[in-house]
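Lesson 9: reading folded outputs for more than one chain in a single document. The general rule is that every protein is listed as its sequence immediately followed by its structure tokens, and records are never interleaved. Here is the first one.
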Amino acid sequence: MRVLLVCLGNICRSPAAEAALRESLAEAGLDDRVQVDSAGTGDWHLGKPPDPRMVAAAARAGLSVNGRARRVQPGELEGYDLILAMDRANLATLRAMARDDATRAKVRLFREFDETADADEVPDPYYGDPGGFSRVVEIVRAAARGLVGRLRDGVGDDRRCGP
């Protein structure tokens, strides 16, 4: 199974979500069965490392965030089983990029998998106060645990994560 996590610039939310999902998959013993990647819909930070504020907030919580920002390409969406947007704006962008209804159906909001979520979006901490980065780490970890819980008994079974 292949999962893509997407935010705007691929330097804050999606790399943190990628790290949180990798962590949850490893804890569940599924890390060898699910491939995880992240990307952004924008091109402002291409090739740059994750925002140092996100790296620091994640590190304080015991999570390692790394990688280099990249932009999602329209033709690559078909290669993923699940494409998870951090917010509705990126959800709309990804669905518009999708070449067919089957691909559009794979595009979802990441927080859908957190049954305790108080909202459906992962807030963008970029222009906010430093506490926003720590909050994002908590949010993406909860969503990652929820997704892995849905996957645990059926990796590759579309009914586990389907609409």
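And here is the second record, again sequence then tokens.
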Amino acid sequence: MNPTRAILTITGSDGTGGSGVQADIRFIRELGGVAASAITSITVQNTLGIQEFYDLPASTVRMQVEAIINDLQPQVVKVGLLRRIDVVEAVADVLRRYRPRHIIYAPVLESTRGERLLSPEVYEAIERLLLPLCTVVLEARHEGQHGKANQLSSAVAVLLNRGEQPDEAMRHARELLDELPAGYVEPTGRSGELYNQFLDTVERFYHRYADVAFYAEQLNVSPRYLGQVTRRIAGRSPKTIIDERITAEMVTLLTTTTRSLKEIAHQLGFSSQAHLSRFFKKQKGVSPIQYRYKELEVKG
């Protein structure tokens, strides 16, 4: 086979570059191959996981695949993420018609975060329509280390394109992967650093601001991303963390000082004593006055 002929990858997009079409193209090129692509799904994701899928229509996927096959005539095709039955049908129909020499399928059912990527009905369609056409089916059922299945299947594709037989290509591909440095395709996010910065910012401003948008602006991130970070690391929303810090300070002021509720409300940025009382009762289940008297009785 001609090693300079393009290898077609049909899969989803991963904006982090750790998996999906971006990783396929990069790894194929690093191994000396030529990559072409057809995208099946666009994801909204980062190192914390996938937030949204936008699956492309079957007709759009079909046109992408046919455009590449008609022009570049790839003899090795790698298939990854297919999330719709009609897309499976379209891809299988095109591949059946044009008969590339090798078709590789890497069944990725779940992401590294345990997110379900396709339904059992879609996988049944894949087993029925696509697998009979394949030269190689990898055994990976989930991504394991982010993009590991992509690396293996991409390496196999390059080696098949060089003329190796499937068994030889699989063995050789595993050897190539063993030589990769640890964390080769693992993108590094800022979540841990950002979480600590958020806590520091809360400590600085909790007595003046309780709005999540304020803290997100201070950290130059979206409120949505800040929420992803705190839920992943602490299992709590940013608002919960802010409110807990404010409540802790209220408890300290109620139990260690003789300041009035009006003074405490002003110190902590509440619009009124009534506003403070409503907030505290929602957090603790009792009014500030009741809480103060109860604590004094306990200490008395």
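What the second record shows: The chain has two domains: 7-178, 191-299.
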